[in-house]
Write a structure and sequence with these properties.
Elements lengths: L8 E4 L3 H11 L5 E4 L3 H10 L3 E2 L8 E4 L6 H10 L3 E4 L5 H11 L1 H4 L4 E4 L20 E5 L6 H13 L3 E4 L2 H25 L5 H4 L4 H7 L6 H10 L1 H21 L3 H16 L12 E9 L4 H12 L5 E5 L6 E9 H13 L3 E3 L1
Parallel strand pairs: 1-2, 1-4, 2-3, 4-5, 7-8
Antiparallel strand pairs: 6-7, 9-11, 9-12, 10-11
Length: 354
């Protein structure tokens, strides 16, 4: 549901985020114009229903810039010069304010407010887009000192129209936050995945779901991530320096059981402070592990049965270990629902691991 009642919106950049924004806005009836350096991307996004190609020479009242990080300042500057109210969805904010300000001057800068949807995928391009990408996800709105109230209000309404939960934060605080919660996890996944390149195939044969969970996000586009990480180098350098010290402490703790216990307890405690669904407090959950035969229709049958039982699934993981005739599905549910769900699934002849 959206309170957006504004005019058409021009989305510049028809990749994953730009196309998803177009799809999300189109589903609530917003007129969306699309442009991209790649006409194939525009045609694909338009074919998916994300909008129509932007008319040549015409200007939209509101522009969303969803291009690679190094191109954002120039595209924002051109849109501001054309008289539009502009936001971008880049993942680093303060350097952009400085660069765009040097290009357009203080008066035009009042019509710019940065933003950053905290949603994405290790996949890229318009075919990876979905209208539901932002549903319930945080979307940072990052006004700078001279952003007009109208600009801030408009971009908050736009994010809400996409289904997101807006969070207003300063550009500098945003960059420190994403260094910790987004950029650091990506680099940790990259380091773990990189260690696998030199592993003996016999070692890799023992890979379980844990290594897949830890390394999944390392598959992100290296060219894009290079731009992101360099843009946020000051904030990221601080976080990495802290991790370097903690790694040294961890190596020493391997000879001190009590110290190692403290490291592990801090990790458990850290998982509890991550916000839960819709930004609320994390709820106590438990995992229900179910063996699912590896042939068509079985996963759908499991979901159907869980739905009939009346249990809400908070999260889901699937173990695809090679060579096994069945998959192991981990259903994450509220702690109080776990035992009743296990009993009900066993009554329907599912193999449940207790």
């Amino acid at each position: 549901m959206s309170d957006w009642d504004g005019d058409r919106i021009h989305v510049v950049g028809a990749g994953l985020l730009g196309t998803s924004i177009g799809l999300a806005l189109a589903r609530v009836g917003v007129e969306v114009w699309l442009s991209d350096r790649s006409q194939d991307n525009v045609r694909t996004a338009a074919g998916l229903g994300a909008g129509v190609p932007a008319p040549h020479g015409r200007t939209a009242p509101v522009v969303v810039v969803a291009v690679p990080p190094t191109s954002i300042p120039q595209v924002v500057a051109r849109s501001l010069a054309a008289g539009s109210l502009v936001t971008d969805v880049g993942s680093v904010k303060w350097p952009l304010v400085e660069r765009i300000g040097r290009l357009v001057g203080p008066e035009a800068l009042t019509h710019y407010v940065g933003s950053h949807p905290m949603a994405g995928s290790e996949r890229s391009g318009p075919l990876a887009a979905t209208a539901a990408l932002f549903d319930g996800r945080p979307w940072a709105i990052t006004p700078h000192a001279t952003s007009s109230d109208q600009a801030v209000d408009t971009i908050e309404l736009l994010a809400a129209a996409c289904g997101a939960a807006t969070v207003r934060i300063t550009p500098r605080d945003h960059d420190r936050a994403v260094a910790l919660t987004s950029h650091l996890p990506h680099l940790m996944a990259v380091l773990v995945a990189g260690r696998l390149l030199d592993a003996d195939p016999r070692q890799l044969a023992l890979s379980g779901q844990g290594v897949r969970d830890v390394t999944r996000i390392a598959a992100g586009d290296p060219a894009l991530w290079r731009q992101i990480l360099i843009s946020n180098a000051p904030a990221l350098r601080e976080v990495l320096s802290d991790i370097q010290l903690e790694l040294d402490e961890l190596i020493g703790a391997l000879d001190e059981p009590e110290d190692l216990d403290e490291v592990l307890r801090r990790g458990v405690a850290g998982t509890q402070v991550i916000p839960g669904k819709h930004g609320g407090p994390a709820e106590e959950t438990a995992s229900v592990h179910v063996s699912v035969p590896d042939h068509p229709g079985e996963l759908a049958r499991l979901f159907h049965d869980v739905g009939e039982i009346g249990t809400n699934i908070e999260d889901l993981r699937i173990d695809h270990d090679p060579g096994r005739p069945v998959g192991l599905v981990e259903l994450v549910v509220k702690d109080t629902s776990a035992d009743p769900l296990r009993d009900a699934l066993e009554a329907r002849d599912w193999v449940v691991h207790r």
